[in-house]
Amino acid sequence: MPAHQSARRTPADSRPQPVSGISMRDLLASCAAAAAVSTPPRAPDPLPAAEPAKDHREAA
């Protein structure tokens, strides 16, 4: 392409062209898979603090 033609780009020419051949379902599935792989596992829940045993009387 000659230099004088490439210099005269209109705003319509500078828009990205849509990608064809990928369904929205496949695109969403790949995003969900990427999120599942890149998200670290949840930290385990902290154990409840052990309460001291209360003093109780033995039955007579």
Automatic annotation (TrEMBL):
Residue segments, region Disordered: 1-23, 35-60
Superkingdom as given in the UniProt entry: Bacteria
Protein name listed in UniProt: Uncharacterized protein
Natural source organism: Streptomyces edwardsiae
